[in-house]
């Protein structure tokens, strides 16, 4: 198991926050009255209003718009990276798409669905469920299972753009979104209002900077890159450790039984065990890809470095990824 074997090595128990929360039914009923007051756009309406002209695509490019104009070469790298990350998650959770104790949710929302890989796989595994995926970027494929619908809206944190009273969910899932919330409390309130009684909200995120189980990361290029990335992200309004604050924020929104499940993802093949090696190999590829795509753009725009300085930093960090003496991992 990833968790136990990594925990043996790593004394620090930080990992990605994976939270499954139940909704307080009485409180939801109270809020239900408010839900019917205003006319809210349904997901179907959002889909129909979607116009995929390229200017609009740029405007809707979500996290990419935070680092400047949407650039297709970044998106191509990101698509590949999100596929790798999807695979890492499945290995970590022993092939589960979510940990919330729901056998077969009737209606599911994948918030900030990205390329839609999670939503499509969920729709296939739960053919009787109705799956919706939302994102600010229209980057989802067209050929999807019949029970899967994607929509694009401009401000998805406000539930008025993705929900209406008849459109409530048994499960709202969101992965790798925490850094990009402009207001996660608003999202939690929206999610709370949009869940059916007894429904679950599950977030899956990993934290940056890269950690180490010992001092092996100190004074390395990988560490320098990781620190520079976090600081540049902050300068651009992206909080790479925002998910650490999710639990109290969820509770403030009315969620009960908020649970966190932690993993540690090794970077590279230094950790013992077949699963750690599989995750570590994928994590190194994920990081390498992220450094050259979105990560490079973040540094160019937020670190105050020249292009050659950024490329030098990335080159050094990339070569560290193959160094088995560096005991680096991501907190999940
Ligand atoms: C790192 S990707 C994760 C995608 C997907 N959840 C996955 O795990 O593969 C983050 C996604 O959040 C989207 N995003 C950023 N800000 C958003 C917002 N305010 N509302 C909805 N989606 C947003 C981006 O367009 C991007 O697709």
UniProtKB/TrEMBL annotation:
Coiled coil ranges (UniProt) are none
Region annotation Disordered: where it falls in the sequence: 26-58
Recorded protein name is Methyltransferase domain-containing protein
- Could you tell me which Pfam families the record lists for this protein? Methyltransf_23
What molecular functions are annotated in GO for this chain? methyltransferase activity
- The annotated regions of Basic and acidic residues compositional bias extend over 26-36
Family matches, as Gene3D superfamilies: Vaccinia Virus protein VP39
């Amino acid at each position: 198991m990833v968790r136990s074997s990594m925990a043996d090595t790593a004394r620090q128990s930080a990992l990605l926050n994976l939270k499954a929360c139940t909704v307080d039914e009485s409180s939801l009923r109270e809020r239900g009255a408010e839900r019917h007051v205003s006319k809210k756009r349904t997901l179907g309406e959002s889909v129909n209003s979607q116009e995929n002209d390229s200017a609009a695509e740029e405007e809707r490019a979500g996290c990419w718009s935070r680092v400047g104009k949407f650039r297709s070469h970044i998106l191509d790298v990101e698509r590949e990276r999100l596929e790798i990350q999807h695979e890492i998650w499945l290995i970590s959770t022993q092939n589960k798409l979510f940990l919330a104790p729901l056998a077969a949710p009737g209606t599911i929302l994948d918030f900030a669905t990205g390329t839609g890989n999670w939503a499509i796989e969920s729709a296939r595994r739960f053919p009787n469920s109705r799956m919706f995926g939302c994102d600010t970027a229209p980057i989802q494929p067209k050929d999807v299972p019949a029970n899967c619908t994607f929509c694009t809206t401009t401000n998805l944190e406000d539930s008025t753009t993705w929900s209406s009273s008849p459109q409530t969910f048994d499960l709202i899932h969101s992965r790798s979104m925490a850094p990009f919330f402009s207001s996660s409390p608003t999202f939690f309130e929206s999610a709370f209002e949009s869940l059916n009684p007894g429904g679950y909200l599950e977030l899956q995120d990993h934290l940056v900077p890269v950690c180490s189980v010992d001092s092996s990361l100190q004074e390395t290029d990988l560490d320098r890159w990781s620190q520079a990335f976090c600081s540049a992200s902050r300068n651009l309004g992206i909080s790479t450790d925002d998910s650490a604050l999710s639990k109290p924020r969820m509770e403030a929104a009315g969620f009960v039984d908020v649970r966190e499940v932690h993993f540690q993802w090794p970077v590279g093949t230094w950790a013992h065990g077949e699963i750690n090696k599989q995750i570590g190999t994928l994590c190194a590829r994920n990081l390498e890809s992220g450094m050259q795509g979105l990560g490079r753009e973040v540094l160019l725009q937020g670190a105050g470095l020249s292009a050659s300085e950024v490329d030098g930093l990335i080159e050094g960090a990339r070569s560290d990824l193959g160094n088995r003496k560096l005991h680096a991992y991501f907190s999940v």
